[in-house]
Every structure is written in C-alpha cells, then in structure tokens.
Amino acid sequence: MLQIIRNNSPFTVLILFIFSLLIRLPALSDPVMPLPVEGLPVYNLLLHMTGFLVGGSVFGFTLLTALLLFLQALYLNTIVIRR
Questions:
Q1: % of the chain with per-residue pLDDT over 70
Q2: CA-CA distance, 60 to 81, in Å (whole number)?
C-alpha cells in the first residue's frame, strides 16, 4: 500500500481522492450543521464566513471538510515523497 502512495504517478491523486471520499462517506450521507460555541469568537467568525461562502448549506459544509481532508492528504503525500 505504501508503494502506491509513494509513487509519483497521476493516479496517486485519484486514489487519494477516492480514499478521502470513502473516509467521509458517513458524514456525506448524513451531514450535520456545525454549531457555534460560546467563548470562541474566532471560530464563530470563521463559521459565519464559511456559512456565507457555502450559502448555509449543510451539505456544503460537509463537502468543504471533505475537500480540506483531500488537500491534507495531498500535502502528506508530498511530504512522504520528499522524505
């Protein structure tokens, strides 16, 4: 499995995308809206700005988290290839 991830082929991106969707599949099938927390003004501000960006859509928040997970996987793959 590690040999697939360390490979520098374009299929690595596709495999990472599929893995990230499989990991987020339960959340994508039943999305939940993030709740504001008292005492965390920066988090609440980011939550409000993100809500404006995705239009307040619950699925939009979940899709955004899946995209962020995919980007983190790509970054981790880059680190593994360099080292």
A1: 90
A2: 31
